[in-house]
Amino acid sequence: MSLRHALMALLETRPMTGYELAKQFDVSAIYVWHAQHPQIYTELRRLEREGLVAVVAAPRGRRSTKRTYYLTPRGCDELARWVETVQLPARERDETYLKATYFEFGSLDGARRQFRAHLEHFQLLERQWQAHADQLRRRETELIRRRLSRAPSAAHEAIVAFKVHVYEGLVERARTEVEWARRGLKLVDRLERGSGVAADEPLARPRPTRPDSR
To answer: 188: which of 44, 58, 204, 207 is 20 to 30 A away, CA to CA?
Structure first.
C-alpha cells in the first residue's frame, strides 16, 4: 500500500502528469520504495477511482489527451492518516541471506562471486544514498525546494531533518551489508584452505529424498 502514499506525497508538491510523476518518483521515492512505471500508472488509476486524486484532461495534439493528476482533500486526509499510523517493520524476505544459508550446495567460488556482487551493490547504494542525503541537507533537490515553498517556515527544519535522517539510516544499513559481505569473503577464504575440495566444485551436492519405506 505504500506506493500510493508515496505518489500522493509527490502530488502534494504540485499537479503532475503520469509521466512527470514517474520521473519524479525515479529521483526521490525510488531510493526507499522500488516500483516500475507500469505499477505507478496502475496505482494512479486506483487512486483516481477512489477519489484520492483527480484529473484534469486537456487535448494534446489532434489525437491524444494530457492527463494531469492532483491531490484531492480526501487524498490529503488519507496521506495524513497514513503518516500517523504506526507501521511495524516488515518480516524478513531476503533472498541473498536465504541463499547464503545453503551455500554448501554450491562451490566456494560461487559463494565468493555472490559475496562480491553483494559488496559492490551496497557500495554503490552507499554512495548514492550519501549523495542524496547531502543534497537534501543543502536543500538542493527540486522536490525539497518545492515542498519548502509550500510549507510554513516553522516546519522547514523538520522537513529537511526527517528526510536526511532516513537517508543517513540507509547509508548505515549499506555499510553494514558491505561489512557482512567482506566477512563472507574472509569466511570463504578460510573454508577454502581447510575444505580439501576444489574451489569450483560443490561442497555437498543436493541429494534426492525418499519417504521411509517402513
So the answer is: 207
| CA–CA dist 24, 141 (Å, integer) | 11
Domain carrying residue 72: 2-84
Q: Are residues 111 and 159 in the same domain?
A: yes
Cell of residue 132, nine digits: 542524496
Q: In terms of pTM, does the model score above 0.70?
A: yes
- 51 with 111, same domain: the answer is no
**Length reported for the chain:** 214
Indicate the DSSP class of residue 62: T
Mean pLDDT, consecutive 10-residue stretches, the chain (214 aa), reads 91 95 91 90 96 90 85 96 90 92 94 97 97 96 94 96 97 98 97 87 87 70
